[in-house]
Amino acid sequence: MPKKEIARLLVGFRQFRNQAYKEGSPYLQLTNGWQGPKTLIIGCSDSRVDPAQLASASPGDLFIVRNVANLVPPFEPDGGRHGVSAAIEFAVVNLKVENIIVLGHRQCGGIRALLFPEETKAGGFVRQWVAIADRAKERALAAVGGGDQGALWRQCELESIRISIENLKSFPFVNEAISQNKLLLAGIYFDLENGDLLELNDADGTYSSFQI
After folding, report:
1. End-to-end CA distance of the chain, in Å?
2. Burial code of 8-38, b = ≥16 C-beta within 10 A, e = fewer?
3. How far apart are CA 61 and CA 52, in angstroms?
């Protein structure tokens, strides 16, 4: 990282510290070793799509997991290192969040890598990870065909949220919390080109705009 970028980040941190740690700041209440967010957001690593910024959330409001293409793997208790699954378990079992939101977005590079791996020069780690959404690719192709890359890309972004919601339901502790009416799952799509939010209707797989 260029030195000027490090310096810029340090200046930003100094501004944060001066505000967050001044006497009487609500942030100091979060340093007592306890957190109680009500919502887990599974978002994308994309630098343009910060869940806390989009929600104008305060520190402590959200438990956030970010990865390439905001994907949720299926429940696989195989002893492997499953960072996203561990975060979901911690949020549901330990923090007892009341909501899980899968936050997808327009112009997702991970979904583009799924659709066009050669064109995007997707490496082995990326290809293996985004393969979680192979069914989304199949559904998108069936829905819009492959003639219009832009339409296919967007449709696959939408379908991938559905896949992640389906995979969330494969976790026993998630299903238990849902059955006890203690947990709600939601799929949200951020159209960063237009500044719109769409909500997934889990019953029929359609999306509708939030009235904000």
Report:
1. 39
2. eeeeeeeeeeeeeeeeeeeeeeeeeeeeebe
3. 8
- Residue 211 pLDDT > 80, yes or no? no
Q: Supply the mean pLDDT for the chain.
A: 94
Strand partners, 102: 42, 187
- For residue 50, what is the DSSP state? -
Q: CATH 3.40.1050.10 spans which residues of the chain?
A: 37-209
Tell me what pLDDT residue 115 has.
96
Torsional sign, CA 101, 67, 211, 169: negative
Alpha helices in 55-108 (DSSP H): 83-89
- Would you say residue 149 has pLDDT above 90? yes
For domain 37-209, say whether CATH 3.30.428.10 is its number: no
